[in-house]
């Protein structure tokens, strides 16, 4: 048995902030004690002046995802290693059911085939623990039946799309059926809420007018079309008697829909992402083709939306901050959309920078330290059935722990980050706070600028159902 003591730090969880020592035996936390309580250990990590926080739980990533005619640049190996560098010790990635249109035999794949493919990609390659959601690209009798089996295997959430007609899109009838099945089985439906049918009309009209630059991506994916879809998704969920989780929410009007539903006592949950808190349509409108670096869906919004999102995080109308990490290189991938913004692969890199950017939210006074940990670790763990194994520091929890230096500064850059992508959305931006040491199930995997883990350290996590509904 190995014993590690993290001594003298400020232990910050969603519930508490306390100067304490953390004692770890093998993979688990066994005690959180008064400082200097006298526990003996083989290894002592001095955390004086540091925060000691639960490792981040990023509940929305797309490692090596085929999308928009190419594949997201981070593999499970590179992406989870980058996550570790940034203080995230668990990801929940999206396995994908293949739609009929993307298969040679013209038949939709099964959920099982999709999940097996994702297991094969991740198995033996991850630096940190990982779990899966399932993207349902074809809601039919047989995929609806499969939902129950997946819930039993720890894949307890299912993403549907109101966007991307012909790719992932589901119509309202299919969405209603999936929500009903979710209510029956305990599976949580996650919704990409944008009116894709209307967006495709606006795309066609914009291109016909010669509006081909990246900034038009933000204009055609209108904020009201996000609000409308969010409203519709919530109403469909109410009719089905099911909870709903809205992913990557960016528009203030969409947040208002979630807030109203929550005020009425309905189980509507939503996440936002750091890019919506720190970037805006000004970035999409950067000169030349630079704006392509900022093309994602839902799109970045005008700066004014940021204050509403921070407020939503404070009031818990937004419960989670995930990254939607889906990186495409500027050269060779984003440039597929030169002369036609609709061909720019949608997605941004971010798995490495989430904890730091949210800590910057603490530095700038938007949220408290405990709320930082709540939205980045504790709530995503609870939302997706991983708590208290993940998301906190308490006896019995996995020893996924970050020793975080709250005063160190860093300048973000593609030249120093570890994500396999040739640009940073935050190039040259200085933030305060930096990961010093990362433990994954009791093993130090990052320390003082050195990566000490290896591919295959991370294990698949079977998840419970959403812990806000029991
Ligand atoms: O632009 C995005 N968000 N790309 C990833 C796919 C998705 O919709 O989450
Ligand atoms: Zn989406
Ligand atoms: Zn996504």
TrEMBL record:
Assigned protein family: Belongs to the metallo-dependent hydrolases superfamily. Hydantoinase/dihydropyrimidinase family.
Name of the gene: hydA
Broad EC category: hydrolase
Family matches, as PANTHER family: COLLAPSIN RESPONSE MEDIATOR PROTEIN (PTHR11647:SF1), HYDRANTOINASE/DIHYDROPYRIMIDINASE FAMILY MEMBER (PTHR11647)
Protein's UniProt name: Dihydropyrimidinase
InterPro entries: Amidohydro-rel, Hydantoinase/dihydroPyrase, Metal-dep_hydrolase_composite, Metal_Hydrolase, Metallo-dep_Hydrolases_sf
Pfam family membership, one: Amidohydro_1
Record flagged with keyword Metal-binding: yes
Domain (Amidohydrolase-related): residue spans on this chain: 51-444
UniProt entry keywords in alphabetical sequence: Hydrolase, Metal-binding
Hydrolase keyword on record: yes
Cofactor(s) this protein requires: Zn(2+)
GO MF, one annotated term: dihydropyrimidinase activity
EC annotation from Swiss-Prot or TrEMBL: 3.5.2.2
Organism of derivation: Pseudonocardia charpentierae
């Amino acid at each position: 048995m190995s014993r590690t003591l993290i001594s003298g730090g400020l232990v910050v969880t969603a519930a508490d902030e306390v100067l304490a020592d953390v004692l770890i035996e093998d993979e688990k936390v066994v005690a959180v004690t008064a400082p200097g309580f006298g526990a003996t250990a083989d290894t002592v990590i001095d955390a004086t002046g540091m925060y000691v926080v639960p490792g981040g739980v990023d509940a929305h990533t797309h490692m090596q995802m085929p999308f928009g005619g190419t594949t997201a640049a981070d593999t499970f190996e590179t992406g989870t290693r980058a996550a570790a560098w940034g203080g995230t010790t668990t990801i929940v990635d999206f396995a994908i059911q293949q739609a009929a249109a993307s298969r040679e035999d013209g038949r939709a794949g099964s959920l099982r085939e999709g999940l097996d493919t994702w297991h094969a990609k991740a198995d033996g390659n991850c630096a940190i623990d990982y779990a899966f959601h399932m993207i349902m690209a074809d809601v039919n009798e047989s995929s609806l039946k499969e939902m129950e089996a997946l819930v039993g295997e720890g894949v307890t959430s299912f993403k549907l799309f109101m966007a991307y007609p012909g790719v992932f899109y589901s119509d309202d009838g299919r969405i209603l059926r999936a929500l009903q099945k979710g209510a029956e089985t305990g599976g949580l439906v996650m919704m990409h809420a944008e009116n894709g049918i209307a967006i495709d009309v606006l795309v066609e009209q914009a291109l016909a007018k010669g509006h081909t630059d990246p900034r038009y991506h933000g204009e055609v994916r209108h904020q009201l079309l996000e609000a409308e879809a969010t409203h519709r998704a919530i109403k469909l969920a109410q009719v089905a008697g099911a909870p709903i989780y809205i992913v990557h929410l960016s528009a203030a009007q969409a947040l208002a829909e979630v807030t109203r539903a929550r005020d009425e006592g309905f189980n509507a949950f939503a996440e936002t992402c750091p890019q919506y808190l720190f970037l805006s349509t000004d970035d999409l409108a950067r000169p030349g083709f630079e704006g392509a670096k900022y093309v994602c869906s839902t799109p970045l919004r005008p700066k004014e939306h940021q204050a509403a999102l921070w407020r939503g995080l404070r009031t818990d109308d937004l419960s989670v901050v995930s990254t939607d990490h889906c990186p495409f290189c500027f050269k060779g991938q984003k440039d597929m959309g030169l002369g036609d913004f609709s061909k720019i692969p949608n997605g941004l890199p971010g798995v490495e920078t989430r904890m730091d950017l949210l800590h910057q939210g603490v530095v700038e006074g938007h949220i408290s330290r405990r709320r930082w940990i709540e939205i980045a670790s504790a709530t995503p763990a609870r939302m997706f059935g991983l708590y208290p194994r993940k998301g906190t520091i308490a006896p019995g929890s996995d020893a996924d722990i970050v020793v975080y230096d709250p005063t160190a500064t860093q300048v973000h850059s593609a030249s120093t980050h570890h994500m396999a992508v040739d640009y940073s959305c935050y190039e040259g931006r200085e933030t305060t706070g930096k990961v010093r040491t990362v433990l994954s199930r009791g093993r130090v995997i990052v320390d003082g600028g050195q990566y000490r883990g290896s591919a295959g350290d991370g294990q698949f996590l079977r998840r419970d159902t959403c812990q806000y509904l029991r």
